[in-house]
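Before the break, one more example. Copy the sequence into your notebook; we will annotate it together after we see the structure.
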Amino acid sequence: MKGFLLLGLLLLFGGQRSSACPHLCLCRGTRVDCSGRSLTSSSLPSSFPSGTTELHLHNNQLTSLPNGLLEDLTSLRSVSLHGNPWLCDCGILYLRAWLLRQPASLSSHLGVNCSSPPSLRGRLVVYLTEQEVLDSCHYWYCDLALASQVCLFVFVVVQASLLVVLLIFLKKFQRLSREARRTTEESYTDGEGLRENEYSHLK
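Here is what the structure looks like once it is written out:
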C-alpha cells in the first residue's frame, strides 16, 4: 500500500514539475517565452513543459544548447533562436544535429548564425559541415600549443642566461683564485728571501 502511495506521489510531483513554467520565462498556454532575458547557456532552464508548442529563446546570450534539451518536446512546432552569439565549436554539434532533423516548415534555423570563431562568423549553423565544426574545435588547441611553445622558449632563454651568468662567475672565481694563489706564492717567496738575507748577515 505504501509503495503505491509513494509511486502516486512521484507521478503527481513529476507531472507538476514537467508542466511548470521555467524560472525567468513567461508561459501562456503551450507557449513558453524566454526571449530577451540575457540567458546564457549555463543559466538556461534545464527543461521545459512537455506540451510546449512554441518556444522563444531569441535575443539572449546563448552560445550553445545543452545536449538533449529539446528532445522531449514532441509537440514543438515553433522555436526562435535568433539574436544569440552562437559559438560554433564542438558545443554547437547538438544544436546543428537538432536543426537538421527538423522539417522544412519549421524555420528554426533562420538567424541562427555563428558569432565565433572568426573563420565561421556569419555562417548559418544548420549549413555547417561536420568537418568545419570539428576543425573549429581545435582552434583553441593551436593557441594553447603556441602559448606552450612561447613559455618553453622563455624557459630555455632564462636557463641559458643563468648558465652564462654561472660560467662568467666561475671564470671570475678561477681568475681570482689564481691571483690569490700567485699573491700567496709571491709573499711566501719574498718572505723566504728576507729570511735568507737575514741569515747571511748573521754569518
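The longest helix spans residues 139-202. The longest strand covers residues 26-28. Try to locate both features in your own notes.
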